[in-house]
Known about the structure:
heterodimer, A: mainly alpha, 2 domains, 4 helices, B: mainly alpha, 6 helices, 76% helix, ubiquinone (chain A), transport (chain A), NADH dehydrogenase (quinone) (non-electrogenic) activity (chain A), quinone binding (chain A)
Amino acid sequence: MDYAESYVIVTVFILLGVALPVAALTMGRLLRPHQPTTDKGISYESGVDPTGDSWIQFNVRYYLFALLFVIFDVETVFLYPWAVAYNDLRTDVGLFILVEMLIFVFFLVIGLLYAWKKKVLEWT
Amino acid sequence: MISMNGEFIAFFLLSVMAIAGAVFMINFTRVVHMILALAFTFLGIAGIFVTLNAEFLAVVQVLIYTGAVSILMLFGIMLTRHRDETRDGGRPWHAFLCFLGVGGFFALLMRIIYGSPFNGETAKTETFSVSGLGESVFKQYVIPFEVTSILLLVALVGAIILAKKERS
């Protein structure tokens, strides 16, 4: 089978993945009774009536966590080609390949330590 | 004449997906729905990368844009006052002028594209490999790679300083 044609299988998987929840939810809609009341519409909060609005302003802490996530996500992306090419490059440039990645990670660790020092990682 | 092979159909569907996501993002009134539409666009673009044999780029697109950047935007929006759903419907001539401007820009762009000669062959896309990417990044472009980490560090430290200043 051609390499590009193997993506037909991937497409079939994607279609199945979309079709399965759609079919399940449609079947549920057809089978279940439908009697909505306002009490049923209230969001469940451990048996206590919810107060206020669910659309609140988030704490800035969430944003910093998301930013940390993005930065270390980018680091992960660089680790992939590094790991794949590691053996070829080690015969070529020696241990410099390891040092390169260590320098890269070192700078990001400085950032993480700074975040730790500034109590970004704590939930007070 | 365009042949109707699988690649063309895939490209067509993915382009529709990307453009539809972008159009929905502009038209939705709730910001969270906008982010979902934008994530849809990112997925469509990742699919287009796959049709171009750039699988690594597609995975990176899903990992960073669909995953991380969408989350970042979502949390960024959650920081703001996001209950505002007011629509600007007062000026009908405004939309018309926008249409004229965009239409003119489209015509100009198409004129330039069709008028410019494309000499030589297009680049081959079949020869890409992650190992080759790794070799060029870690052998040829070592300094830019290390500078990238400093750039990420600066972004992180800057964001922390700004967030901390805001709270105190």
